[in-house]
Design brief:
about 260 residues; Porin; 2 domains; 12-stranded antiparallel barrel
Length: about 260
């Protein structure tokens, strides 16, 4: 998949949502006239009309992005997901979370999603689904499982492809305008994930020496990448070349926790 195809798929999803909303609105209005239902039609119709227009507007937006995005030619497919030092994030509908990772040339590098998703969970309210223990998989562009993230008590256990536990991510705590989370990775190393809530939110992974070795930012995309990515606020994830798999998994765990129910 390319970012251009992602834009196309998102456009069609919103178009289908607009059609469904328009169909439900037509059905309710037709039934009310046929059966002389005594109901305030304006109060019933307006929400469906707004949803229909909202989805149609997003359809036009993503369709335009798809047409403007350049066709992609892979230049980074010789690297595995965990050896990519720059990734761009996109979001897909899911009961809890589904993140797509793209390389700067617009090609899919991998994704983070739940290992097992039941269809009935789409209809669960947030406050109920939140109480369910979840397991996430990190997959490469070919759908092969590369690592797992398992919710366990007050954090997330990080497991590599060989089923080895590489560390544990502890949920964040708020301090003024920032949130802090910690992770213990292999050999007892402690890393800190800091998330700020300023005008331009960002996440940083800080190693045991106080150095920033990974960062997630919005609004800082290099100009050459905009030929493929038509949203300048696309989150950009950067890793220091020296960061090992355990440290990268800690940041992926932070992303899973941060963007849970982002597109429920």
């Amino acid at each position: 998949m390319s970012i251009r195809q992602y834009y196309q798929q998102t456009a069609y999803i919103n178009l289908n949502g607009s059609i469904v909303s328009a169909g439900l609105l037509s059905f309710i209005l037709t039934a009310s006239f046929l059966f002389s239902w005594n109901m305030p039609l304006v109060l019933v119709a307006v929400p469906f009309l707004l949803v229909c227009l909202l989805h149609y507007n997003k359809y036009l937006l993503y369709q335009n992005k798809s047409e403007e995005s350049m066709y992609t030619f892979p230049r980074h497919n010789d690297k595995t997901l965990f050896s990519q030092n720059h990734l761009l994030l996109a979001f897909a509908p899911a009961p809890a979370v589904k993140l797509l990772f793209f390389t700067p040339d617009g090609m899919l590098a991998g994704e983070l999603r739940e290992l097992d998703v039941r269809s009935w969970r789409w209809f669960l309210p947030y406050f109920i689904d939140k109480s369910l223990k979840k397991s996430f998989g990190i997959y490469d562009a070919y759908g092969c499982l590369q690592a797992s993230l398992l919710q366990d008590g007050k954090g997330i256990k990080m497991i590599n492809r060989q089923k080895e536990v590489l560390g544990f991510f502890y949920y964040s705590k708020r301090n003024n305008n920032s949130q802090f989370a910690t992770a213990i990775v292999r050999n007892g190393r402690k890393v800190t994930i800091e998330e700020s809530s300023r005008m331009f939110p960002e996440m940083k992974l800080i190693d045991e020496h106080g150095l920033i070795v990974s960062r997630l930012q919005r609004g800082w995309m290099p100009l050459e990448w905009t030929s493929y990515f038509k949203d300048v606020h696309t989150p950009v994830l950067s890793f220091d070349y020296s960061l090992d798999q355990g440290g990268r998994l800690a940041f992926f765990a932070a992303l899973a926790h941060r963007y849970m129910y982002h597109d429920h």
